[in-house]
Amino acid sequence: MTAAMHEWGADPDRAALAVLTVHGRGQDPSFMEETARRFGPVPVRFFAPEAEGNTWYPLSFLEPAERNEPALSRSLRVLDSAVDTLARAGFPAERVALWGFSQGACLASHLALTAPRSFAGLVLFTGGYIGTSPPAVAGDGPLRGVPTVMRSIEHDPWVPRYRVDETADLLRRAGARVDLRVDEGDEHIITDEACAAATTLLTTVANGSAGTAAGHAT
């Protein structure tokens, strides 16, 4: 399954890294492009598919996964297809970072846990795995060593802290090096600190020094 891909950032022939970008509910790639400007200059090219009707699945990500079908499976196939498209364009998974916010972070988290690849990095702003049962993970899989930035807000109105923590734990069990920070507040926002952490990860990975991308990695 394919979807129109919006692009911006470094020239694709010079970009050290591709960032597969997943917007939230009621948003579109232009929101993510605006947010990416807060990252400052990074040597990456952003690729953002757009969800049909600006939503990847209809209900809360906390509902049983089957209640979000068939949209959930369709949207995961969109991301799968995008990864394949990037590979054909010269960006294999190890040169692709996955970045999502809100519903997009939920979809990206779920993809990383249920169909893991050796991604260059993960940037997950306010999201977690989808459904009521955590996906099974293996500690010796392709996520081993993948630098991961996770950010959220303590009392976010849509994404509870416990699900962010659970998802961070699952990613750690899968071998990812997770830098998790949850700030005080009750707004559904992306903080300046979150953008700075994303910039550090993307720049470090793009420069070939992924080992120090997440300053508080565990």
TrEMBL record:
The keyword Hydrolase applies. GO terms for molecular function: hydrolase activity. This is Phospholipase/carboxylesterase/glyoxalase family protein. PANTHER family: LYSOPHOSPHOLIPASE-LIKE PROTEIN 1, LYSOPHOSPHOLIPASE-RELATED. Residues 55-203 form the Phospholipase/carboxylesterase/thioesterase domain. Transmembrane segments: none annotated. Keywords: Hydrolase. Belongs to the AB hydrolase superfamily. AB hydrolase 2 family. Pfam families: Abhydrolase_2. The lineage of its organism: Bacteria, Bacillati, Actinomycetota, Actinomycetes, Pseudonocardiales. Coiled coil: none annotated. SUPFAM superfamilies: alpha/beta-Hydrolases (SSF53474).
